[in-house]
Amino acid sequence: MKTKANVIFTAFEAAPFIKTGGLGDVGGALPPALNKAGCDVKVILPKLSVIPEKYKKKMEPVQTLTVPLSWRNQYCGVEKLTYHGVTFYFLDNEYYFKRDKVYGHLDDGERVAFFSKAVLESILKVEELQCDILHCNDWHTALVPVFLREFYMGAEKMAKIKTVFSVHNLKFQGIFSEEMLGDVLGLDSKPAASQLCQGRGAINFMKGALLYSDVLSTVSPTYAEEIKGSYFGEKLEGIFNKRSDRLFGILNGIDTTEYNPQKDKKLPAAFDKENLAGKAICKAELQRKIGLEVKENTPLITLITRLTEQKGLDLILRILDELLQEDVQIAVLGTGDEKYENALREAENRYKGKMCAYLAFDPALSHLFYAGADLLMMPSRFEPCGLSQMIAMRYGTLPVVRETGGLKDSVIPYNKYTGEGTGFSFSDFNAHQFLFVLKDAIGVYLSDQEAWNKLVVQAMETDVSWKIHAKEYADIYKKLMEGSL
Ligand code: ADP
């Protein structure tokens, strides 16, 4: 019996090539961790224009293909590049992928349908792409398991492939007009047509993956339970309940090489849990850089996120004025909805030197925000996993989170009686509960240095790597190959 799983991992994002959020972090960090857990992983990505030139230059051509997409036959170039011991394959078609941003185009449905079909054509036709397990992620690759079953099972190379589909964010499902079924997907006369339909003339790509994949996973145990109910289930809770024996919640990890306070070249000084002097240098540098008063002993609270409703921006705006009456500083790094950007910009104007709204998506600069702050706010309405709180802990910045999804699974709330904890948390989506716990955290910072330092050390000692959780995926792959799942 073969024991090493050959895995093809496919997603629309993988850092450092393509990243707009947590999916990019996972796409970059999970595959090498799976290799360390005993798998043999290859990754397939779209060759998008946003990929930095230095990587594009190193790609080698592998093969060219024609990809059938309903009545179309589209060109696809396959190129590859090895990075951190993993071979990444990039599928090229300039008509679909030569765009200035990753998402937000009118034909996103067709772009991801092309990519999903091209993934399968590459596996079918490129000799070195063999797999036992095909691991797909989020709605952009949700059609892969559907196309696999409807079009490719007759081919010997494809017949035994098992599929895993991971939900990173259920909010985005890929909902389009049912006209696409025939015109783009070529599925109108297949059983999938009725499975993808969700009524009112719409089809739902993610629904297809949830019904057609052998195993489903999501990115934290708590979220795996939450999505079985109607509040978090986004109208798909029925499927999660029906397939609950096939649904696994596996907590994400972070790339502990990229995020390492001891060796981080993006910081002015290194630090670790035994010597936090470098963290104070990072704090002063952050304050200087973004126009806050340089004050060593004032708690600096950061927010590093997409500025959307999901991330609890309404709670933050509700309490901002009251919070800023305290001796605190606030540093926001984010982009997103205009109404939130405007409100934060306005607050910056009112509290110059105390509050900064740095409205940009800047992964390199985010390191200084994580390292230089004392607290990170993450009062999410829902949070499948969340990586920011884990990155913050790695840099000794204590997260203040709402107890939902992966936030609940990754942050141990401070217990003032035992000293236990790696952050602070509150349960209800309520602005004043949030403010109360923030004030609590500020109180510990200002008046109990010993307890604070202990919390910082405990946060930095937390294992936020992929080591344990990559093994959980590897175990699932193994069970699928043995037929015990
Ligand atoms: P989500 O995937 O829902 O956006 P996560 O917490 O899972 O949230 O992951 C977000 C990732 O994106 C983290 O690596 C975080 O540091 C990064 N990020 C978010 N906003 C910014 C920003 N404005 N600049 C740089 N990095 C950001």
List its traits.
single chain, 485 residues, alpha/beta, binds adenosine-5'-diphosphate
Structural class: alpha/beta
Helical content, roughly? 40-55%
Q: What number is the mean pLDDT?
A: 97
Major sheet? 9 strands, mixed
Distance, first to last CA: 16 Å
Strand order, main sheet: write it out.
3-4-5-2-1-6-7-11-12
Q: What would the principal axes of the Cα set say about the shape?
A: globular
Alpha carbon gyration radius: 23 Å
Q: pLDDT under 50 segments (min length 5)?
A: none
What is the helix tally? 21
Strand tally is 18
Task: Give the distinct bound molecules.
Answer: adenosine-5'-diphosphate
Q: If you had to describe this structure to a student in words, what would you say it looks like?
A:
The chain has 485 residues and is of the alpha/beta class. It has helices at 22-36, 53-56, 94-97, 108-125, 143-152, 156-159, 180-183, 192-196, 205-212, 221-226, 230-233, 237-242, 277-289, 313-323, 338-350, 363-372, 388-394, 405-410, 431-447, 449-461, 467-482; strands at residues 6-10, 40-46, 60-69, 72-83, 86-92, 133-137, 162-167, 175-177, 197-199, 202-204, 215-218, 247-249, 300-307, 329-336, 355-358, 375-378, 398-402, 424-426. A 9-stranded mixed sheet has the order 3-4-5-2-1-6-7-11-12, with helices on both faces. It has a 6-stranded parallel sheet with strand order 15-14-13-16-17-18, sandwiched between helices. Strand 3 and strand 4 (72-83) form a beta hairpin. The radius of gyration is 23 Å and the shape is globular. The model has no long low-confidence stretch (mean pLDDT 97). The chain binds adenosine-5'-diphosphate (ADP). Adenosine-5'-diphosphate binds next to helix 1, strand 13, strand 14, helix 16 and helix 17.
